[in-house]
């Protein structure tokens, strides 16, 4: 460990730390009632008829993993994958059907913030009650009380009843209790997105701090891949009740993102079928609208980018094509033709070729999105988008050229900022190609 | 071995911490927003007592003819009020506290115990009121008073047992609340609370037998014991004086024990599933 630190890599080897939470081949299923009524009568009727009144839903199957002391362990997974159930099993709220769970030390669960908070009690009383429910005696809460109040920034409100708090204040108080509670293992479920920006930053600092503490272990369930990458020392992905992956947070979060994309793709296909086979953005009025690259999708930018727009539109009346260029990495719309500029002459199914110069741009990834528009009858300036070429109908391309930089959108060839008084600034030419011209211009 | 002792101590310290937190909160919240506050826990049984005293002692002239009868009546009503309060609150406690049980792990019998302890505190206050009345009506206390804690403990045990039992059932069958409301009335009238036991016994024959039978009910037995030991050892018949057979004498005590065992057993067996079932 010391060696690793000397080499500048700050990463503890947790596998040698003692195992503090051991989950051993656990399974869990739930009875889902199929009969609505709960009552003696229904129970008696079901019993005589031999109806079970429920069906089994297997939520977790054969889950095993160990968490070592000092780890910041992330659990990710899609909704309904069994994360929360697993958390409740770890917190001993549910009991596993098979397998066992061993916990060493005091585990403080936060399945939900502010459990047992009562609006009729003051902030102070609620802190003590919440503490008691988590198993802290009055004296123990005394010891952490100031810390909690400081962190929540609610010094002036502690003797107010909770019902007079704003919802943000309530959440802040609850969250402060959660993270200032002096447990050995902290179990947090989806609680990171609370409070305003300043409070968020504070929490972020706290997590970074607790990550360094070798005695505190944190188990975090979240959807937010950024916080997994930022805080977790190890992560696990659960899908459909099984462990899909355990390992370093980068790999796991990538896998999670991939799984999400797949699911989205599947959902999109289903949506398309529901729309009657038309791709996203299109319909029976405009069944075809496609932007197709003619030039290579990875280009140098020295030649104009050439692409085709294929359309089919048979409704009577004028119609226009509007083409927008989106900057995928930097965000924002780089260029737009305007809605009523490119008036199309022919109805029916045709292809039109366009060309766009790229010399202005640095390296980047762009997407061309075409829409087919008709003028509004009541507003001569407005148009109505009949069809939009989204997703697979849009056209993506990238500019890759040594002469370009990566950071800004516009290259030095297109734009440069020059001092108005040359006495104050010396323009230092750099090695970027194109600067020679700038230097020339400055003279 | 040492480790085991420490673990047990830890376990019950947690339970104790939670219990204190819940009882304190409940008590704070119970009379919040009312002008008279805690005074209500004294006023309520007192007003109830006035009503019953007027109806039964004055209009129906039901009395055992002793000057202590009104205090005995008050004591009976207070004791029964403890039973109804803890069962009616405790019965729903697991479901009412469902949000807690589903979010954190803690010994969940505590929610039932806290409901009964809340009622026990009210009972304690009421006993002080009874004491004041007893002093005012010049009751002569005897050494029997020393047995009072045992009687109260037994009353608490049988009440807790019933509450645990019904709280468990209530999670699965909400009907229990309505059934208990009726059964509670039945027990109340089948028990010598508003009418003196001696009044029934004096009528002889079948009534006398029924009165004796009523004493086998642990509630009747303990409440009679409480009255006997606290206020009127001379005039209040108890099971210990009415029967000579020890088997019969001990029946209500054994019933209490059995009920307590059953309550704890069923509650423990099902409590693991409460968080899922609710």
From TrEMBL, chain A:
<dbReference type="GO" id="GO:0005524">
    <property type="term" value="F:ATP binding"/>
</dbReference>
<dbReference type="Pfam" id="PF00005">
    <property type="entry name" value="ABC_tran"/>
</dbReference>
<feature type="domain" description="ABC transporter">
    <location>
        <begin position="40"/>
        <end position="265"/>
    </location>
</feature>
<dbReference type="InterPro" id="IPR003593">
    <property type="entry name" value="AAA+_ATPase"/>
</dbReference>
<dbReference type="InterPro" id="IPR003439">
    <property type="entry name" value="ABC_transporter-like_ATP-bd"/>
</dbReference>
<dbReference type="GO" id="GO:0140359">
    <property type="term" value="F:ABC-type transporter activity"/>
</dbReference>
<dbReference type="InterPro" id="IPR017871">
    <property type="entry name" value="ABC_transporter-like_CS"/>
</dbReference>
<keyword id="KW-0547">Nucleotide-binding</keyword>
<dbReference type="InterPro" id="IPR050683">
    <property type="entry name" value="Bact_Polysacc_Export_ATP-bd"/>
</dbReference>
<dbReference type="InterPro" id="IPR015860">
    <property type="entry name" value="ABC_transpr_TagH-like"/>
</dbReference>
<protein>
    <submittedName>
        <fullName>Sugar ABC transporter</fullName>
        <ecNumber>3.6.3.40</ecNumber>
    </submittedName>
</protein>
<dbReference type="InterPro" id="IPR027417">
    <property type="entry name" value="P-loop_NTPase"/>
</dbReference>
<keyword id="KW-0813">Transport</keyword>
<dbReference type="GO" id="GO:0016020">
    <property type="term" value="C:membrane"/>
</dbReference>
<dbReference type="GO" id="GO:0016887">
    <property type="term" value="F:ATP hydrolysis activity"/>
</dbReference>
<keyword id="KW-0378">Hydrolase</keyword>
<keyword id="KW-0067">ATP-binding</keyword>
<comment type="similarity">
    <text>Belongs to the ABC transporter superfamily.</text>
</comment>
UniProtKB/TrEMBL annotation, chain B:
<dbReference type="Pfam" id="PF01061">
    <property type="entry name" value="ABC2_membrane"/>
</dbReference>
<keyword id="KW-0813">Transport</keyword>
<feature type="transmembrane region" description="Helical">
    <location>
        <begin position="68"/>
        <end position="88"/>
    </location>
</feature>
<keyword id="KW-0812">Transmembrane</keyword>
<dbReference type="GO" id="GO:0015920">
    <property type="term" value="P:lipopolysaccharide transport"/>
</dbReference>
<keyword id="KW-1003">Cell membrane</keyword>
<keyword id="KW-0997">Cell inner membrane</keyword>
<dbReference type="GO" id="GO:0140359">
    <property type="term" value="F:ABC-type transporter activity"/>
</dbReference>
<feature type="transmembrane region" description="Helical">
    <location>
        <begin position="155"/>
        <end position="173"/>
    </location>
</feature>
<protein>
    <recommendedName>
        <fullName>Transport permease protein</fullName>
    </recommendedName>
</protein>
<feature type="transmembrane region" description="Helical">
    <location>
        <begin position="182"/>
        <end position="201"/>
    </location>
</feature>
<keyword id="KW-0472">Membrane</keyword>
<feature type="transmembrane region" description="Helical">
    <location>
        <begin position="246"/>
        <end position="267"/>
    </location>
</feature>
<feature type="transmembrane region" description="Helical">
    <location>
        <begin position="34"/>
        <end position="56"/>
    </location>
</feature>
<feature type="domain" description="ABC transmembrane type-2">
    <location>
        <begin position="36"/>
        <end position="270"/>
    </location>
</feature>
<feature type="transmembrane region" description="Helical">
    <location>
        <begin position="109"/>
        <end position="135"/>
    </location>
</feature>
<dbReference type="InterPro" id="IPR047817">
    <property type="entry name" value="ABC2_TM_bact-type"/>
</dbReference>
<comment type="similarity">
    <text>Belongs to the ABC-2 integral membrane protein family.</text>
</comment>
<keyword id="KW-1133">Transmembrane helix</keyword>
<dbReference type="InterPro" id="IPR013525">
    <property type="entry name" value="ABC2_TM"/>
</dbReference>
<dbReference type="GO" id="GO:0005886">
    <property type="term" value="C:plasma membrane"/>
</dbReference>
């Amino acid at each position: 460990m010391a060696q690793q630190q000397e080499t500048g890599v700050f990463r503890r080897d947790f596998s040698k730390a003692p195992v503090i939470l051991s989950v051993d081949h656990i399974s869990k299923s739930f009875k889902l009632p199929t009969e609505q009524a709960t009552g003696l009568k229904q129970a008696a009727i079901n019993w005589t008829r031999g109806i079970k009144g429920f069906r089994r839903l297997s939520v977790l199957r054969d889950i095993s993993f160990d968490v070592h002391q000092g780890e910041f362990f992330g659990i990710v997974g899609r909704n309904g994958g069994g994360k929360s159930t697993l958390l409740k099993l770890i917190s001993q709220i549910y009991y596993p059907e098979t397998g066992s769970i061993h916990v060493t030390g005091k585990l403080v669960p936060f399945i939900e913030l502010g459990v047992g908070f009562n609006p009729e009690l003051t902030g102070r009383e609620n802190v003590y009650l919440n503490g008691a429910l988590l198993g802290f005696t009055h004296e123990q809460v005394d010891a952490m009380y100031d810390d909690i109040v400081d962190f929540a920034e609610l010094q002036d409100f502690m003797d107010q009843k909770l019902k007079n708090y704003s919802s943000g204040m309530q959440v802040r108080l609850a969250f402060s209790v959660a993270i200032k509670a002096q447990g050995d293992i902290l179990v947090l479920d989806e609680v990171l997105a609370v409070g305003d920006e300043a409070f968020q930053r504070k929490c972020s600092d706290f997590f970074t701090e607790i990550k360094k503490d070798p005695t505190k272990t944190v188990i975090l369930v979240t959807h937010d891949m950024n916080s997994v990458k930022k805080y977790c020392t190890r992560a696990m992905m659960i899908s459909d009740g099984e462990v899909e992956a355990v390992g370093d947070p980068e790999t796991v979060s990538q896998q999670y993102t991939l799984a999400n994309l797949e699911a989205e793709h599947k959902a999109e296909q289903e949506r398309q079928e529901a729309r009657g086979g038309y791709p996203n953005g299109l319909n029976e009025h405009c069944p075809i609208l496609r932007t197709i690259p003619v030039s290579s999708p990875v280009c140098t930018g020295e030649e104009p980018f050439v692409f085709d727009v294929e359309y089919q539109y048979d409704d009577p009346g004028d119609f226009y094509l509007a083409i927008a260029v989106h900057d995928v990495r930097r965000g924002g719309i780089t260029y737009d033709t305007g809605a009523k500029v490119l008036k199309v002459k022919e109805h029916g199914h045709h292809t039109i070729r366009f060309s766009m110069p790229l010399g202005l741009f640095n390296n980047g990834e762009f997407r061309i999105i075409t829409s087919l528009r008709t003028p509004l009858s009541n507003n001569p300036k407005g148009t109505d988008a009949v069809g939009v070429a989204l997703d697979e109908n849009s056209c993506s391309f990238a500019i890759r050229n040594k002469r370009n930089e990566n950071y800004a959108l516009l290259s030095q060839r297109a734009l440069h900022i020059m001092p108005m008084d040359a006495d104050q600034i010396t323009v230092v030419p750099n090695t970027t190609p194109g600067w020679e011209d700038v230097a020339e211009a400055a003279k | 071995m040492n480790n085991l002792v420490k673990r047990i101590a830890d376990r019950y310290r947690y339970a104790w911490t939670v219990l204190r937190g819940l009882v304190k909160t409940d008590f704070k919240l119970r009379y919040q927003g009312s002008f008279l506050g805690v005074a209500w826990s004294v006023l309520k049984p007192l007003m109830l007592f006035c009503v019953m005293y007027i109806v039964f002692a004055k209009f129906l002239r039901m009395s055992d003819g002793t000057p202590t009868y009104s205090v005995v009546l008050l004591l009976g009503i207070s004791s029964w009020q403890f039973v109804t309060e803890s069962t009616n609150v405790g019965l729903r406690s697991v479901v009412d506290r469902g949000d807690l049980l589903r979010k954190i792990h803690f010994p969940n019998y505590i929610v039932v115990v806290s409901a009964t302890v809340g009622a026990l505190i009210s009972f304690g206050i009421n006993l002080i009121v009874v004491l004041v009345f007893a002093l005012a009506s010049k009751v002569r206390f005897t050494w029997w008073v020393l047995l009072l804690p045992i009687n109260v403990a037994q009353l608490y045990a049988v009440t807790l047992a019933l509450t645990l039992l019904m709280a468990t059932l209530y999670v699965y069958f909400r009907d229990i609340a309505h059934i208990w409301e009726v059964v509670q009335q039945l027990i109340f009238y089948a028990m010598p609370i508003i009418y003196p036991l001696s009044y029934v016994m004096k009528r002889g024959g079948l009534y006398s037998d029924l009165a004796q039978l009523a004493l086998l009910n642990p509630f009747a037995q303990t409440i009679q014991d409480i009255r006997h030991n606290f206020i009127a050892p001379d005039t209040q018949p108890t099971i210990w004086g009415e029967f000579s057979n020890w088997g019969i004498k001990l029946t209500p005590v054994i019933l209490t024990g059995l009920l307590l065992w059953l309550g704890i057993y069923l509650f423990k067996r099902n409590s693991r599933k409460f968080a899922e079932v609710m």
